[in-house]
Amino acid sequence: MIELEKLTKRYAGPSGSVEALRDVSLSVAPGEIFGVIGRSGAGKSTLIRCINLLERPTAGRVRVAGRDLTALSAAELRAARREIGMIFQHFNLLSSRDVFGNVALPLELRGESRAAIRDKVMPLLDLVGLSDRADRYPSQLSGGQKQRVGIARALATDPKVLLCDEATSALDPETTDQILELIRDIRDRLNLTVVLITHEMAVVKEIADRVAVMERGSVIEHGATYDVFTRPQHATTRSFVADLIGFNLPPALEKRLAAARLEGNSRLWRLLFTGPHADDPVIAELSRNLGLDLAILHGRIDEIQGRPFGVMVVQARGDDARLAAAKSYLASRKIQVEELNDVVTIDRAAV
Asked: pLDDT-based confidence at 277, cuts 50/70/90?
């Protein structure tokens, strides 16, 4: 549905040009929710605005539904943009218009009749749960309700693609969950393709089928959300997911371990459980079958896209043969084992 080919975007600055995007190539499948994450200044907002050509790339091509937007005339581009809806972090509602009027605006600009507009707007308000607030003004709405108005407005022209520019960043956690669930429900009902940019990894974990991680205008890692979360390849990605999925040791535990000296026959392991063995009682089996003493120091079990994974830090005591046998057993169950004995020198950003 969306193909970005070697996108580059430069801005003129007082000390020369600034490169906001550098040779970015990505594709988004029809019906997919695709997340783009990065810190402030990574280029993600520029990237999403290049998809509908609110920002025209300095170089590269943008194809949406098979059409090369960069090759269209101004009139053709205006028509093509009707198939691309966009919702914003700060809602961008007109304070002088009520809810109905804000959602109706793109249809009025298109020249639709009053009857056609009403027939379109009221079902959209029902879809986003605001049919009883059609005559309210933005000042009378909560943040979540304002974002629902923004979503309804973005859907008014029957788009194939929905772009979400930090759509939940101004919302509290409970409202964020509600808006994400609404976006997922709308995607399923209307068969939309969604691109969502955020600096919140929890948002990506909750909703995205695939994700791209950006840094300094480049995509440094991308893939299925489950794979990126459980097997991050780049240091920046690892820093994003570390706290969220339990890679990092709690500070109090890290201090306690750093102050203690492990005996020669003790090992500190971080175990990563993924795939079909994530729910298996491997710790009990290691203790029972190999005679190891195992202390669970830290752990977390979670799901991404309905697939389980877990992270656990254990202290294992036993002779060298039993410890080696335990690592072999864990490897046979597709469980990653990372040695953490030198806890004093753990680099939290690289964990």
From this structure: low
